[in-house]
Each structure stands twice: as structure tokens, then as C-alpha cells.
Amino acid sequence: MDLKGFGAQIATGAGLTLLVAALSLVIGLAIGGLGAAAKLSGSRPLRVIADAYTTLMRGVPELLILLLLYFGGTVLLTWVAGEYVEVNGLGAGLFALSLLCGAYTTEVLRAAIQSVPRGQLEAARALGLRQAHVVRLVMLPQVWRLALPGLGNTWLVLLKDTSLISVVGLEELMRKSAIAAGATHQPFTFYAVAAGVYLLFTTVSVLGISALERRARRGLARA
Amino acid sequence: MRLFLIAALVAATIGFQGQAQAQDKVRIATEGAYAPFNFKAPDGTLQGFDVDIAKVLCERAHLECTIVAQDWDGIIPGLLAKKYDAIVASMSITEERKKKVDFTDKYYQTPARFVQKKGANLTISKDGLKGKTIGAQRSTIHAQYLQDNYADVADIKLYDSQENADLDLTAGRLDLVLADSIVLLEGFLNKPDGKGFEFIGPELKDPKWFGAGAGIAVRPGDAKLKDAFNKALAEIRKDGTYEKIDAKYFPFSIY
To answer: CB–CB of A5 and B42 under 8 A?
Structure first.
């Protein structure tokens, strides 16, 4: 396929897409862990904060959150700092996607944790396991297995949501394709290439997720 | 001897100021989707007439310039928010824009024209354009002209970039596109996709809509930068540098 010399640009864009998605997933998982802990904690204020966070992030369109952070963020930070503060596309995009990913993983992890039967925890404590051991030996292996399908979904959505960042000027895969499409007047070629790259990323992801699920389920396979 | 010393001192001071000026950093925004004036090359760099003019003006004014791409929609807000210090993006000098930004002298001026599918034989008049769909780039003099003159009879569609308006013309969603004649000629008609299309109607240059040519926009009151650009512009007009850049892109003068 003739990419009119834009191949290298598309590849750079694809790299940036992967980078943004991977970083957002890592940060999002951390937020999700904290969020789930807050939702299940005994502290009422923490639960209220976590509920407000997931309600807001899951209830407003992703694009809108991104625009709010990108344009609103500049205004807010400038107001706070007293001088002009630049919010760049990468920063705003990472921040928005991490918060979004965090909200979804909060719910996935919360559901997974609650799916572990309480009796197992009581049994573990009755056997004299310390709290840290209960978490590491009893909870995590099961939470991991229960959360994986949900986390896999979140990752796929996240990977595709990175294309939204193109609207604030970050030159990731989607934006690079749009630039090439405009410059060459060949929209179909370049958008098809972009679609192919996204599909490649998601297909590899799906294979990876299945492998992880098989591994997480290995104790149950014969049961 | 005393006179000589004073002269030497003055010369040294001027020289020193010259050096201090050489370190002035200026950020310049262009759109990057408006060939041949500004566009992204396959290697990702910004190129075109605007970019070349900006570079040579910076060189003459002893400014250290960086050129950044910015979507047309947000190009004036970005200047006012100090994301960059000047806009060199084929922006026409109009009364409406002068309320928000200051302009240098014009650095080129070209008329606007309509483009239609070859053989469509449209007549450019209120009657002739009744029920037609006309495209232009949003927030441009061309969009303003269409809305003031044909909004009541024709369907006007506005695009975020000229490239996207051209794409919709090729796709058959538009009957006509109104834009700068050079941009249409070099950026569209002379390219393979523009083969089946042609100019129609007269050259439009009524200053009421089409302004006084393209100028460099700076923040209101930034006289220092404006004067530096104006001085450099007069210089390159005089010494033939402008003509050289012009000739690199066009077989005729666009000043």
C-alpha cells in the first residue's frame, strides 16, 4: 500500500497511542485499587468520595471530560498559579484517561473482591493467618481471576479511547492519520491503515488477556 | 578623539543590543493544513510559503523562532492565551479580527474564487446558487462572505480545515467550495484529486469581506514584535528575498 511517505509518521503515532494507553492503565489500576478499597472501607466519607468519583467519571462522556480538563485545566491552573500555565495535550490526555480508567477499574475490582466468599476470609483468620497473608494468599489470587475479564474490557476500551486525545492536538495514531489523510486527500487509505493498527493492537491484547485468564484459572480447570 | 570614543561606545551599545535581541525567543503558530501556504510534510515538519516567510523574517529580525502547529479553530485564542507570540498562517487582515489582535503589514494578497465540478455550469448569483450546497473553512473570510451573501438561498457547510472541505467536494457532498484562489489551485486543482474540478465565477476581492491581504497577527499592544516583523518584511521586499520565496512556490507574484 502506498503511504506517500507518511508511514514513519503513522508508526510514531501508533507508538504514542500504545504509550498513552499503557501509562493510563498503570495509573488507572492504582486509582482503581484505592477506589475499591475506599468503597469497601468502613469510613463513610471515603465511601462517599469514591461513589461521587465513579458516578461522575462514568456518567459524563469521555470526550467531554477530556475537553474539560484540557481547556478548563489551563484556566484553573493559571488562576491558581497567577500566571499562564500550559496544559499540554499529552498531560491532559493521560490525566483524563487515567481518571476514566480508574473509575471503571474501581468498580471491576470492587465487584471481584465482593465475589470472594466471606467464609473463606473467616476460615483464613480462624487458621491464624495474619491480615497481610489473608490478602496475599487468599484474596489476590481469586480477585485477580475474577477481575481479569472486566479489566480486559477496560483495557480494550481504553486503547480505543486514546483516539479521543487527537482532538486536543496530541499527535497519536488517529491524529497522524487525519493529517496524512488531509495532506494526501486519501482519507480511505489512511483511516483504513489506522483501523488496521488499532485492530492489531486489540487482537494481540485479546490473545494476551485469554492467556492471563487461563493462567489465573489454572487451579480451577479440572474442578 | 573624544568624538571617536563616543562613537565607539554608541556602536558597542548598539552591537550589544543586537546581541541581546538575538536571544529573543518567539513562538510562531501556523495551521499546517493549508497547502501550499502551510502544510505538514510526510516527515512531520511544517513547510510552505508562510513557514518560509516566517523563518526569513525571524532571521532578519534576529529572533530565535520556533514554529508550532495549531488548529485554525483555536488559533487566535491560543495567541491571546500566550501559547505563542505570533500567527503566520495566511490570516487575512479584517476589521473583525483587528478587534482582537494586531496585524503587521500584509505579506501577500490573493483573491478568493469558487470551484465546481467540471461542466457543472453553475452561475454565481443568488438565483444560480439556489438550493446548492457550498463549503468553506470555518472562521475564515470565505465563510463570512458566504453567510452574508448566500445563507438565505444556499446550504452552507463549514469545515475545520480547507483539506476537509476539499475532501467533501471530491466526495460529492458539496456543489461548490469557496476559498483562496491560490490554495485551491496549488493545494487542490493541480493535484490528482482536483482533476475533475475547475474555477467558476470572478475573482472576489471586495475589502469589505476579503480584507487587506494576509498579515502576521500579534497580541494587541505588542508593538515591539509587530515593528520588528514590519521592518524585516520591508527589507526582504526590497532586497529580492521575498521574490525568491515567492518563485519557489508560484509562477507569479502573490504580493
So the answer is: yes
